[in-house]
Amino acid sequence: MTEFYANKRFNLPNLHAELLHRNVLGSMVIDLERITGVAETALEIVAVSQVDDGLIQNIWFYYRNP
Fold first, then answer.
1. Non-local CB neighbours of 65 within 8 Å, separated by 6+ positions
2. How many domains does the chain have?
3. Higher pLDDT, 6 or 11
């Protein structure tokens, strides 16, 4: 996962993520984000992170293909 994001995401020149909404439920953080610079149209994704001691332990992404 680290290699994918380092080489195929975070090096995209027009990549931008906008946090639209955040919910926190215990150790789970649920973010709604709008991502541009990856596809022709903006993507809206839900990222669900499990956080323990201030560090992300697991993360899941949910999105609909444009």
1. none
2. 1
3. 11
